[in-house]
Write a structure and sequence with these properties.
Shape: globular
Radius of gyration: 22 Å
Helix content: 40-55%
Structural class: alpha/beta
Number of strands: 7
Strand order of the largest sheet: 1-4-5-6-7
Order of helices and strands: HHEEEEEHEHEHHHHHHHH
Length: 265
């Protein structure tokens, strides 16, 4: 579903929103890395997992559901225990399900009462999210499930929150708002949505254009640096790599490792 990629990007860009939804400080996200993980035995990729950086913190399995599914909880718990077994996990864990609205939730089966009682399995409803005025993450979540007639009001709130973010994060916020609008209004062109909700004017500002250009430049530089070790392993000389990637020789030389010392300099 399109909501899978949307919420994956929301959690990836604004990981603090998970903890806000759970009623915890968003700063806890600094202790986690968010990623999708492949469950080899099931040939399935999870919606997302928050992997703790510190011993003692629980791992969070996160799923977002926008359609009714009577077998959902059985599959979820199967995925959880397959992951724990595959990775020989010894720490605590929690599974959180975000349903679009209560009517879609079939209810957690009785066989998982122990997990519910232990606080390991929880269900929350995005339609019941409140107090979003000061959080762009919660505002995005609410926008997706809000009636279309109220979308304009929420876009204005999201814009205020986005402008309060650091420069580079503002660009990511705009892109998330755009994606949420495309999901909400699937039959309207992106340009029309940008104009309708005031994003076109924002994207045409000098500030936006400069930050966007800086981001592209940083992305190109990162790709160049990632390519250097692979090119060294292929036996290319430092001078050849520098010319090919349009970087200086000293930058390439820093990436030389013991295996590459036999390469011709």
């Amino acid at each position: 579903m399109r909501t899978d990629s949307l919420f994956y990007k929301v959690f990836q860009t604004l990981p603090g929103v998970l903890f806000e939804l759970l009623g915890k400080p968003s700063a806890l996200a600094a202790n986690y890395n968010f990623k999708a993980v492949e469950l080899k035995e099931l040939a399935k990729r999870t919606d997302g997992v928050f992997l703790p950086k510190r011993d003692g913190d629980p791992i969070y399995f996160v799923e977002v559901q926008f359609q009714k599914d009577d077998d959902f909880y059985y599959r979820l718990m199967q995925q959880v225990f397959v992951y724990l077994g595959q990775n020989r996990w010894r720490g605590d864990w929690k599974a959180v399900v975000f349903w679009a609205k209560p009517s879609l939730d079939p209810g957690i089966p009785m066989c998982y009462d122990a997990e519910v009682a232990a606080g390991k399995l929880r269900s929350l409803y995005l339609s019941e999210v409140k107090n979003t005025q000061n959080s762009i993450g919660l505002g995005l979540v609410r926008l997706v499930v809000e009636p279309e007639t109220q979308a304009q009001q929420h876009i204005q709130q999201l814009e205020r929150c986005a402008r309060a973010l650091p420069a580079t994060q503002q660009i990511n916020a705009i892109e998330l708002i755009e994606q949420a609008l495309v999901y909400k209004f699937p039959n309207r062109p992106r340009k029309e949505l940008e104009a309708m909700f005031g994003l076109t004017e924002w994207k045409q500002t000098r500030f936006y254009q400069e930050v966007k250009a800086e981001g592209k430049a940083e992305g190109r530089e990162e790709m160049q640096l990632e390519a250097i070790p692979r090119m060294l392993e292929l036996g290319l000389s430092i001078e050849q790599i520098a010319r090919s990637l349009d970087v200086d020789v000293e930058t390439v030389r820093k990436f030389r490792n013991p295996r590459s010392r036999t390469h011709r300099a």
